[in-house]
Specification:
By secondary structure, this protein is mostly beta strands. The protein contains no helices and eleven strands. A hairpin with a 5-residue loop joins strand 5 (46-52) and strand 6.
Length: 122
């Protein structure tokens, strides 16, 4: 049984930083990628970033490139999303998900965390 447990959301002022964590358990993950997605009410889930679990190759949405950094601690099977220079439009529920290497499509990700709220005030 794969489990993804997220932590680290909260309320921050514009320009501030937050770090999200996603701890994975239940199987080996070397053939997967871990992705972060976000969703606001009434909108489709949006790709944010992803990292391959076997080598740390990364990919970012244009909207967060240069501000967000995704990283991996293999020993802990934990993926982090460091979010800097946050903007009000980054406000969303953030989800981590485990899926195939090479995809940004949420429908291809098989396992999902519970979501964590990030709110950026102006």
């Amino acid at each position: 049984q794969v489990q993804l447990v997220e932590s680290g959301g909260g309320l921050v002022q514009a320009g501030g930083s937050l770090r999200l964590s996603c701890a994975a358990s239940g199987r080996t993950f070397s053939t997967y990628a871990m992705g972060w997605f976000r969703q606001t009410p009434g909108k489709a889930r949006e790709f944010v970033a992803r990292i391959t679990m076997n080598g740390g190759s990364t990919d970012y949405a244009d909207s967060v490139k240069g501000r967000f950094t995704i990283s991996l601690d293999n020993a802990k099977n934990t993926v982090y999303l460091q979010m800097n220079a946050l903007k009000p439009e980054d406000t969303a529920v953030y989800y981590c998900a485990l899926g195939p290497i090479g995809s940004r499509q949420d429908r291809r990700y098989d396992y999902w965390g519970q979501g964590t709220q990030v709110t950026v005030s102006s």
